[in-house]
Known about the structure:
alpha/beta, Rossmann fold, Arc Repressor Mutant, subunit A, 3 domains, nine-stranded mixed beta sheet, about 45% helix, elongated
Amino acid sequence: MPVDELEAWLRLLLTPGVGRVQARHLLAAAGSPQAVFELSHAALQGLGLERSAAALAARPAGLDGQLRATLDWLEAADDRFVFTLGDAGYAPQLLDIDDPPLLLYAMGALARRWAAGEHGGQPMLAVVGSRNPTPQGQRHAQQFAHALAQAGVCIVSGLALGIDGAAHQGAMQAGGSTVAVVGTGLDRVYPRQHLALARQMLEHGAIVSEFAIGTAPLNHHFPQRNRILAGLAQATLVVEANLQSGSLITARLAAEQGKEVMAIPGSIDSPQSRGCHQLIVQGARLVGSVADVLQALAELGALRPVAAAAAPGRSAEGQQLQTVLSPGCSDDGPLLQALGFEPVGLDALQARCGWPTERLQARLLELELEGAIGRLPGGLFQRLA
């Protein structure tokens, strides 16, 4: 993008009192950001924007610094891009949402393909959930993403702690692609715990944001970015969420965009499952296996039915996930059978299986090290698979 064009876009976005809706209105009337600043007062009055005339005539404070920071960021690597609404690299599915970002900053191997105009062919699924999931929820996110990535699905999430990070990791472990939509400028990583994960993602996918270089992780940015997260994907899967979770915002936005919303059910006693249960009551598709998700994508035309039928069988994890949430699945022993799939305390577990305390504690430790169970706050244990 020529420097003068980039400067005009940044100027439009930095102009006080001109929001995204007004900016799109101005662009539709003028045809380009440069032409916006050439509109006469009469033209602005005709658009009902005469109150913005003075702001549009003045050069915004901070524009020069923002332009320099953006150019420096772009020049630091060859996989960094700024896409505008009319660019070939701009994700076409975002043009269908009510409030598409005017600028989309992107970096990574997948962003390089977008810049070449390569967008089609791969279905995209948003996988979201709690920042404080149960061990079982974390494992579900990773395993579902792993199996879905093997089936050719690109996993979209938000790089947050918990379910988001597990979904990104699962996709990359399968050798698949994944996209993170973040609430900061792309010159920083939030949370810092995911710095290594973000660097790894650049080799397997992309990190995108509508926020300018240098933008800090402000609270209101994350609900705002969720419309992009939902907009990139053909469907959204909520793994675990409490009733105040930001994941429910993503699910609502996806539904408003006419997208399929799916949710994994959990224990009625778990606060982290109540958001999913609410979504199911409201009409979200209940999914208990990877096959259910693939079937939904096939019905949407995002995935060929043959892929939906065959993909889970490509790995042991995929086969396991077809039954992990289903009644009647096989048990690895009397202790796992006694555990069930809900959190349980040591005393209750001992009453169920009748084992001596020392034997029970030793076996629980072994199962925890094997990854078969997780230890929860309050002295509770939960079966993971």
